[in-house]
Every structure is written in structure tokens, then in C-alpha cells.
Amino acid sequence: MAEETIFSKIIRKEIPADVVYQDDLVTAFRDINPRAPSHVLIIPNKLIPTTNDVEAEDELVMGRLFTVAKKIAIEEGIAEDGYRLIVNCNPHGGQEVYHIHMHLVGGRPLGPMLLS
Ligand code: AMP
């Protein structure tokens, strides 16, 4: 069994977070350390630690991450100008929290994606 993270507590509303969307499959909340004017994390309610752990049965929830990202981008008013969706995996990917999360980042020009 994978270890729960703080994100499971956010899903269950056991700790405070600025939740902007929740349904049966996913939860979205503002990043506590925003790197841009809009920075929202969209996560599966099911604990899937990394993209290496995604199975065929998870395809519906993985797709939901994208449709909810689109909806939030429209609500944030950043859809037309554009934004970036990021999913980090494991140490080389810079992953800090081992519960898959899609970063929705926008609200300013983000520049080229860095591979440093
Ligand atoms: P990553 O490096 O892709 O694992 O990103 C983890 C993200 O989770 C970081 O951007 C953190 O700022 C964010 N984060 C960690 N704890 C919380 C929290 N309690 N509420 C909101 N965002 C958080």
C-alpha cells in the first residue's frame, strides 16, 4: 500500500486548503507556494503516487485531470493567453509530494520550459 500524503487529508477536508473544485474523481486546490498568478494543483482522489503507478483502469481519472484543468483555466481567465500543465515524477522530475498532481500554472508569460 502506498503511503498517504498531506494531499489525502486535503481531499478529505481534514486540513484547510483553498479548494476550487472537487468531484467524485478529482480535487483541485491552490498551491500553497504559487509560482505564478494562477497556480492550482489538480489531483486524483485515489492515491496514485507517481505517473509510474498509473494503470489502464486509471484512464478515466487521468483524463478528468485535463478536463478539470481546462475548466479552471477558463474560470481563472487564463485559457486564451495560455498556461502550462506540469506533472513531475520522482526525484529527477522534481516530485516532492508522492500523490500524483497536475500543476496548472499561468497568468503571466512563463517563458521556455527549462531542462536544467
Ligand atoms: P511537486 O514538486 O511537483 O511534488 O509539487 C508539490 C507542490 O505541492 C509544491 O508546488 C508545493 O508548494 C505544493 N504543496 C505542498 N503542500 C501543500 C499544501 N498543504 N497545500 C497546497 N499546496 C501544497
TrEMBL record:
<dbReference type="InterPro" id="IPR019808">
    <property type="entry name" value="Histidine_triad_CS"/>
</dbReference>
<feature type="active site" description="Tele-AMP-histidine intermediate">
    <location>
        <position position="101"/>
    </location>
</feature>
<dbReference type="InterPro" id="IPR011146">
    <property type="entry name" value="HIT-like"/>
</dbReference>
<feature type="short sequence motif" description="Histidine triad motif">
    <location>
        <begin position="99"/>
        <end position="103"/>
    </location>
</feature>
<feature type="domain" description="HIT">
    <location>
        <begin position="6"/>
        <end position="115"/>
    </location>
</feature>
<protein>
    <submittedName>
        <fullName>Histidine triad nucleotide-binding protein</fullName>
    </submittedName>
</protein>
<dbReference type="Pfam" id="PF01230">
    <property type="entry name" value="HIT"/>
</dbReference>
<dbReference type="InterPro" id="IPR001310">
    <property type="entry name" value="Histidine_triad_HIT"/>
</dbReference>
<dbReference type="GO" id="GO:0003824">
    <property type="term" value="F:catalytic activity"/>
</dbReference>
<dbReference type="InterPro" id="IPR036265">
    <property type="entry name" value="HIT-like_sf"/>
</dbReference>
